Amino acid sequence: MTDRAGTYAQDSDLIDPEAVSAAYYDLIPDVSDPAQKVVFGTSGHRGSSLDAAFNEAHIAAITQAIVEYRAGQGITGPLFIGRDTHILSGPAERTALEVLAGNGVTVLADAEGGYVPTPVVSHAILVYNNDPANDDQADGIVVTPSHNPPRDGGFKYNPPHGGRPTAMRRRGSPLARTRSSPAATSR
């Protein structure tokens, strides 16, 4: 799309926000379809609710895996969360907050319920973890598909070092297990 940089959106670029939001809740991922399973890319899971590749079941399972990962790693500090303006970011953030609250995780989010630029979550984690007054470690979730199209959603976990969660892709990690979990299916 670089040849279209700086130009107006075309009709083919536009989405139906209500359809994208409804699909997040209404479409159930098919566990036998690899395109509908959770798969972590460079720093998270991305997909479209319209393809049953980014739905409530995915986010609930990923968030539960993050809770289990935190427990296994002894991460007991707050979890910072932020979302961007993509249509699926709001529903995904709400799902994550429900799972985190259900597990008793302390969550720090924008006080006004607003959008949070992606680097702010990493910065908040690093500031918290480098403060000698804190005797625990924080981590975070960024709800964004980054540069992906408007129909996509994205969900990224930032461990206490504030960067990509490469160690969590190891076999045996709760996040690695979401790839085959029946409740967590996407691409």
UniProtKB/TrEMBL annotation:
Q: Which Pfam families match?
A: PGM_PMM_I (PF02878)
Region: Disordered, residue numbers: 136-187
Classification via InterPro entries? A-D-PHexomutase_a/b/a-I, A-D-PHexomutase_a/b/a-I/II/III, A-D-PHexomutase_CS
Cite the entry's keywords alphabetically: Isomerase, Magnesium, Metal-binding
Per UniProt, residues of the Alpha-D-phosphohexomutase alpha/beta/alpha domain are 38-164
Bias (Polar residues): 178-187
Which family does the entry's similarity section mention? Belongs to the phosphohexose mutase family.
The protein in question is named Alpha-D-phosphohexomutase alpha/beta/alpha domain-containing protein
Please report the organism this UniProt entry assigns to the protein. Answer: Frondihabitans sucicola
